[in-house]
Design a protein that fits this description.
Layout: E1 7-12, H1 17-21, H2 23-31, E2 35-40, H3 53-69, E3 74-77, H4 89-102, E4 106-109, H5 117-132, E5 151-155, E6 172-175, H6 180-188, H7 192-200, H8 206-220, E7 226-231, H9 242-247, E8 251-253
Length: 254
Amino acid sequence: MTKNNKTVLSLGAHPDDAEFFCTGTLALLRQKGWDVHIATMTPGDCGTVQYSREEISKIRRAEAAKAAGILDGTYHCLECGDIFILYDRPSLLKAIELMRKVKPAIVFTTSPSDYMVDHEMASKLAQTACFACGVVNVETPGAEPFEPIPHLYYMDPVEEKDKFGTGIKAGTIVDITGVMDTKEKMLCCHESQRHWLMTHHGMDEYVNMMKKSGEKRGREIKSRFAEGFRQHLGHAYPQDNILKAELGDLVHIT
């Protein structure tokens, strides 16, 4: 991987995870010339009360690809199952192989503590996949190891709170006001989820939920809309804040 690598990957649990919590920042990076990849561990095969697993999977893969296309990006699905994302060898190998093929300099993933375990498992898988990118004895035929470890950022959990209800403080907040229209357009590609959320969650505010989250983070930096992240700063991971370096005054360190 070259020093000037400008590839960013979002690895979430389900289609629309990125659109809720990081596509504003992806859009800003795209404006700076970054190549965008959006991946999900599952095709969202349980996000329906209307369709079979096969039918909704096909629908949601197409919705996710359409959304990624708005940023001239690429969508990847690792074909695990909703509710059954596991931190196991097969899932890790899928995630590591994806990392090695994409070779991102920045990775966004779901929160380590969130309202559902799928998000937490995707987070753990992304963390290890980043670390294992250069571990040569982990074999992924056709996808060669690379260094260095990507910069890893955790997206906000749903409602900006962990599974105990404690509010999460974002260490990095990105002002996305200027690209909010793009973020909304990408979320609206996921048309199948409006009906699902109305039935399962009792919520007919698919876009409004996303905007309320953006407004909440925005108020912290006196802007209209923002996205919050926490950077993984454990041993061996990059310690510099590449988002601040790339996006300048749009990034606020708290």
